[in-house]
Amino acid sequence: MTTPGMVAEFDDVAAWTAEAVGQLGDGHAIPAACRGSASPAALAWLAEACELSAGDRLLDVGAGSGGPAAWAAKRFGVRPILLEPMPAASRAASKLFGLPVLTADGQRIPLRADSVDVAWCLGVLCTVEDKAAVLREIHRVLVPHASLGLLVVVASRPIADPPDGNHFPLQSELVDLLDTCGFDLVEQTERPAAVPLSWSRRAQEVTALISARYRTHPAYTLASRQDTRLNDLFDNGDLSLQLLHAMKR
Ligand SMILES: C[S@@+](CC[C@H](N)C(=O)[O-])C[C@H]1O[C@@H](n2cnc3c(N)ncnc32)[C@H](O)[C@@H]1O
Questions:
Q1: What domain range includes position 102?
Q2: Which residue numbers in the chain have pLDDT < 50?
Q3: How far, in Å, are 150, 195, 242, 244 from residue 191 at the CA level?
Q4: Ligand 1: which of 61, 124, 135 to mutate, judged by most atoms within 8 Å of the beta carbon?
Q5: Methyltransferase type domain: from which residue to which, for each copy (predicted)?
Q6: What pLDDT does 37 receive?
Q7: Residue 158, φ and ψ in degrees, nearest 5
Q8: Ligand 1: residues whose CB is within 6 Å?
Q9: So what's the pLDDT on residue 154?
Q10: In CATH, what number is assigned to the domain containing residue 64?
Q11: How many independent structural domains does the chain possess?
């Protein structure tokens, strides 16, 4: 279910991000458009785990405004296909990176079975109630034995009052889900913490410009509230960001 908090966080902020990058320059696009995956070290871990290589068709499910897929295209020469249900985020991804975007839900991927070489799904499963439906669809469209790279916000205990629209899985639930949906978990690691200053500076400049323009907008207030609640949960140790490499059985 799409909630007002999710629309503010994923759609309104995506449109504002594209606008801010238009002013600050293309060098800001990838750091600012990585929402949820954030660090280049995390993306590099996923790319190496999935053995990305030039020409691979990489499906990014819940691609947001496209930063991770654009990073993979630039660094590894993959051919991304973005899938994102929020219309303004889809437009932002297309405007920022000129990549093909399917505006669709991960529970109904408009692609043929066995048609993509590798898939990413970063920061998405915790925003979806029916996680199995998304994972089964990804499984359907991947070629046999293909890799799936996941970034998942995992809860260390059941969270009674999560930010609007979030459903954080426990580690045991995540492992069971992957298995039930036809994936073998190959490896998992906690997200590497270090982010180079050059990357975080560009992301923060975009954030500052958005704040200067939109801080009185109701969607800005809503998105900030979501962020604050999420950060509190991370600070308390209730949540962690996990990177996973799984393979289609
Ligand atoms: C935290 S953002 C991460 C965006 C991007 N993957 C990244 O790492 O920068 C979560 C994204 O999941 C998308 N999303 C939510 N529900 C979805 C669904 N059912 N199918 C596909 N994407 C979904 C949201 O619209 C949002 O863009």
A1: 4-248
A2: none
A3: 11, 11, 6, 10
A4: 124
A5: 59-146
A6: 66
A7: -60, 130
A8: 10, 34-37, 61-64, 67-68, 84-86, 89, 105-107, 122-124, 127-128, 134
A9: 97
A10: 3.40.50.150
A11: 1
CA of 75 to the centre of ligand 1 (A): 22
Atom of ligand 1 nearest to the CA of 64: 27
The amino acid that residue 32 corresponds to is A
Closest residue by Cα to residue 243 from 34, 15, 39, 10: 39
What residue type is assigned to position 81 of the chain? I
Q: Cα(64) to centroid of ligand 1, in Å?
A: 5
Q: Using an 8 Å Cβ cutoff, are 25 and 202 in contact?
A: no
CA atoms within 13 A on the CB side of 80: 31
**Beta-ladder partners of 61:** 83
Q: Whose CA is nearest to atom 7 of ligand 1?
A: 35
